[in-house]
Prior knowledge:
19 helices, 3 domains, alpha+beta
Amino acid sequence: MVPKIRRGGRTHGLLVYLYGPGKRDEHLDPHLVGSWDGFAPDPGRDTSADPDPKVTLARLTAALDLRVKQAGDRAPAKHVWHCSVRTDPGDRMLTDAEWNTVARRLVAATGIAPEGDPDGCRWVAVRHAEDHIHILATMVRGDLRRPRMNYDFKKAQAECRRIETEWNLRRLNPGDGTGSKAPTSAERFKAERTGRPEASRETLREAVRQAVAGAASEEEFLIRLREAGLRVKMHHAPSGDALGYNVALPGDRNRNGEPVWYPGSKLAPDLSLPKIRLRLAGGVAERTTPSGAERRPDWSLPARERRSATAVAERAAALLDGGDDEAAAQLVGVGELLDAVAQTSPAATRAELTAAAREFERATRSHVRAECADTRAIRSAARGIIQAGSALGRGEDGGTTAMLASTLVLVALAAARWHSARGHAQQAHASRQTAEHLRTAYYQAAATPMRALRDQGRALPEAVRRTHEATIRAALPQQGLRADGTPTKTDALAATLAHAEQAGHDPKALLQQVIAMRELDTAEDVNNVLVWRLRRLAHLPAHPGEATPHPQAGARQNKPSTNDRTSYRTTPTAAARPGSDPRTRPPRR
């Protein structure tokens, strides 16, 4: 049950709309289902005294505005309180009597007309559709004072949650006032008229989020806005200092032909210029020189940056699992990382990653504030991904996209647990929805490399395969089970252990290391998670070629420490004809 509250100054104009044909949804049989005294004239059905509905409408207007006129100058300029209440599409149809109860409970809860107060404001509830009503009240009491209506929206939300529970309706997640402003009806209708897929407000919010992702300075942020094709207008103090910014879509104009500007704060609470400055003040971490394995010529820059971001995302998940309030800052960083990945990913996964970034936007904001958290590493990872440019959908680019998406699924689930522990229902739900989109993106990106790994695992010499399967069973007694209890196979994991051994690592020690990194209970497929952790830590290709050599039975190399990151440099790799493999081409910008 969703309440929506507005204020206005024309009682008669709103009544004309409520009893009219409707501007979008057709108004069917408009009639009163409740009023302040139960005897208000109904322009929809009262025809005995006044056959002309316009006359009855005028009588109802005069009755509602009586105290407003009596109060004179003491009445508020916007004296009309308008609350629409809509049930969920899956809910049963409420009767007129039930809608009357809903209206009475809401006007009592919000202070419009407290229960048993003879001086409560005058109000009516009009129903012109099966799934919703409109409550109209005039905000002058019988004693000609204004009603106490602080936090009326929160009180209406809370009362709707109680009604949902009592009447066995679908229970919606309560909000906490940190959500971004939804498009108005006029904005949505305009988008449909002009053929836009969404309201301008939503397009601008996503564009601004992407512009701030990984930005190192305010100047860079503003440059990115303009490069994205947005119109940008700055507000300056008399001293010349910038106070804020407005953005507009090219071609989006009002009836006077002027651009429709949106301040950053009206797009989302955290997109005002002061809030963005606070985020940028932390800076980004200095880029370190990559190791020899990370500088491999057949790994493109987007692939290397995705590998680095995977390690950073693992640390963010660990911080969220720690349950500290300082992890709130990590959520903002994860949001930037998702925005960066979404705008640089190949077409095959871009839609799901974009949807994940949009969903997680709600999870980045709550009333929990992190005072001393360091987000430089995760913001630097987002910056690196954007600067590396677009990734290909195949080869190492596609494989490392799958590697990062696999880790981000666990990050999103860790965020859901963090929010749930604090009672943030909307943010927890958004985090879980993010995880679902990321899972879909993962399966899209991982299909080819995982198929190749499974084929290589099945092609291992029998003795080698049995050895690695024994290692897996010893390390994970419950291995082979998905989260839903269905069995899985370990071919890809066995192939990865074989590749790690060939690269000079101790498979048993390396497997224990990746298992100990963090929990695996939320993994839909433990095998997949471990495969990507192993391949990242051992600097193995994320997309193994068909010609990757397999170790022969009984052939084992002397194994250096599992921390030796240079050992893979001496391992022979699959030969490739110059220019035939897209991974050997210069990274696209």
